[in-house]
Amino acid sequence: MTDRLSRRGFFGVAAAAAGAVIQDTVGAGRVYDPQRAGRPQTAITAADNDAGIQAVEKKLRCTCGCGLDVYTCRTTDFQCTYSPALHKDVLRLAGQGKTAQQIIDEFVKQYGEAALMAPPKHGFNLAGYFVPSIAIIVAGFFLVRVLRRWTREAEAAAPATVAPSNATPAELERLRRELDRLRG
Questions:
Q1: Cα 48 to Cα 88: distance, rounded to the nearest angstrom
Q2: Distance (Å, whole) CA 27 – CA 33
């Protein structure tokens, strides 16, 4: 006797297998195989959560290419191997008694200005801070000028309206004065 599955039975088995695969890969917050979880994390110390260390790390760019600061990268991307090493460098320099600015200067000396999240506010770098604002203001000025010219041209091109036949000359004069006052 051969065991043949019906179409409904086949799809039931396929759905159960797909559910098992999805449950195993997506997981419900549990890690069944620690080797699949990635590299082991070091124990968290009080220095890891120090506000001063976090402030310094938020000014330094991670070198892994993610574009994030060191603090954000090390606390969100657990596959990154660069940010924990940079964090250790920050902790080492802070342990030597260096101030936040000295730590940042040390990173700039080692990695160049690319280590900073924002360029320093001096020299040619000031253009990066002021040019976008100036460009927006200039564009707004020209936009206002163009829109005013278009509305004037539209008013000039609008056909003259015929006065109602039952309006008195005094009413027409009053209407003309009001329109001149609104335009001026």
A1: 9
A2: 11
CA distances from 102 to 50, 89, 128, 154, 179 (A): 17, 13, 24, 63, 68
Task: With CA atoms as reference, report the closest residue to 156 among 123, 177, 183.
Answer: 183
Q: Which residue bears the tokens 């902790």?
A: 91
Sign of CA dihedral 71, 75, 76, 77: positive
Q: With both helix axes pointing from N to C terminus, report the angle between 100-111 and 82-95 in degrees, rounded to the nearest 10.
A: 130
CB neighbour list of residue 47: distance below 8 Å, 6 or more residues apart: 53, 91, 94
**pTM (whole model) above 0.70:** no
Three-class secondary structure of residue 125 per DSSP? helix
| Ordered per-residue pLDDT tens for the chain, 184 residues | 456 778 888 888 888 877 766 665 554 555 555 555 555 666 677 777 788 888 999 999 988 888 899 998 888 887 888 888 899 999 999 989 999 899 999 999 998 888 888 877 778 878 888 899 999 999 999 999 999 999 888 877 776 666 556 888 898 899 889 989 888 7
DSSP of 80-120: -SHHHHHHHHHHHHHHTT--HHHHHHHHHHHH-GGGBSS--
Q: Rg of the Cα trace of the chain?
A: 35
3-state secondary structure of 39: coil
